[in-house]
Specification:
Structural class: alpha/beta
Strand order of the largest sheet: 7-6-3-8-9
Distance between the termini: 54 Å
CATH architecture of the largest domain: 2-Layer Sandwich
CATH class of the largest domain: Alpha Beta
Largest sheet: 5 strands, mixed
Radius of gyration: 30 Å
Order of helices and strands: HHHHHHEEHHEEEEEHEHHEHH
Number of strands: 9
CATH superfamily of the largest domain: Ribonuclease H-like superfamily/Ribonuclease H
CATH topology of the largest domain: Nucleotidyltransferase, domain 5
Helix content: 40-55%
Shape: elongated
């Protein structure tokens, strides 16, 4: 027999209101399009409990004892990468046989949900201090200052597939706790490498880096693309250039080249891609490219350029 749809709270309250103005169960059912038996059940419930809310139901007893719940909660709190299979085995050794869905449901009631571990830069204490110093120094900068920055970076875009993920048990808003993240290092293979820039006014140039980039190549990229981007974006006088602390960017020859060109460079803390808003633009580009499903490297490059040009 099919399960009937539960009445909304408003409908239940309306039944009680009509009953209180002395309408019969038949008349109420006819007016609201309900069976007389349904109306009668709601009225009897209201007379008995003085409420139309759903009452607590007993249900089946919990398979995991309170002690077992504490044990698995403590386990995943200490090590969020513990799998459901590990927890099933732990409980089985303690004399309780359960399934993986039971583990999920139990931990969910404790406010813990299985989520993909966030990938974040691997930070040493010196990086943490540098990031904090940067944040404090720029805390009160007006919006106009940030609007006059050209942000730049390199990124890789893969032809197929997704980066591997790991799942962790965590509470809401705890996705960036160190225990719930996967430290990453930069760059890899099986992809195309891109250099791009943008400002608050829109995207600048995007180019493919076809060879392994060195300092000379990086300076050539800036020479051919940075100033044209600034002109196209109509940057104000005194605009600021941002790039990270990659060795190619901080090489003495690169610093000297930037100085001779009179480019003002934003001081940048190491291991801080999450501070660079271009990461959001890379994300937008990668989503757009993935939706078009390029089948080869040539198509991947063409689609990247097309989708970049469409970003407003």
């Amino acid at each position: 027999m099919a399960k009937t749809k539960e009445l909304s709270k408003d409908t239940r309250n309306k039944i009680v209101d009509l009953h209180q103005v002395r309408k019969t169960e038949s008349a109420i059912g006819k007016q609201l399009g309900l069976k007389k038996s349904t109306v009668g059940a709601i009225i009897r419930k209201w007379k008995t409990y003085k409420t139309t809310d759903n009452l607590p139901r007993s249900g089946a007893p919990r398979k995991i004892s309170p002690r077992g719940v504490k044990m698995i909660t403590r386990t995943v709190s200490k090590n969020p990468r513990t799998t459901r299979g590990d927890l099933v085995n732990d409980l089985q050794r303690a004399g309780t046989k359960v399934t993986k869905p039971t583990i999920s449901n139990t931990l969910r009631r404790q406010g813990l949900k299985s989520c993909s571990a966030r990938r974040v830069p691997l930070l040493k204490p010196v990086h943490v201090q540098a990031r904090l110093k940067f944040a404090r120094e720029h805390l009160d900068d007006p919006d106009e200052d940030w609007e006059n920055v050209i942000w730049s970076d390199e990124t890789k875009i893969e032809l197929f597939g997704k980066n591997s993920t790991r799942r962790v048990w965590r509470t809401k808003n705890a996705e960036l706790h160190p225990k719930n993240t996967i430290p990453t290092v930069k760059h890899g293979g099986g992809n195309i490498m891109l250099w791009g820039c943008f400002s608050a006014k829109g995207p600048g140039r995007l180019i493919r880096v076809k060879e392994r980039m060195n300092g000379a190549m990086y300076r050539e990229i800036l020479s051919e693309n940075l100033l044209p981007s600034a002109r196209a974006l109509k940057m104000k006088r005194g605009w600021v250039f941002q790039h990270d602390n990659d060795p190619k960017h901080t090489a003495r020859a690169t610093k000297e080249w930037l100085r001779k060109k009179h480019f003002k460079v934003l001081e940048w803390p190491s291991q801080s891609p999450d501070l660079n808003p271009i990461e959001n633009l890379w994300r937008e580009l990668k989503v757009r490219v993935a939706q078009r499903q390029p089948q080869n490297i040539t198509a991947l490059e063409e689609i990247c350029m097309e989708e970049w040009a469409k970003i407003p």
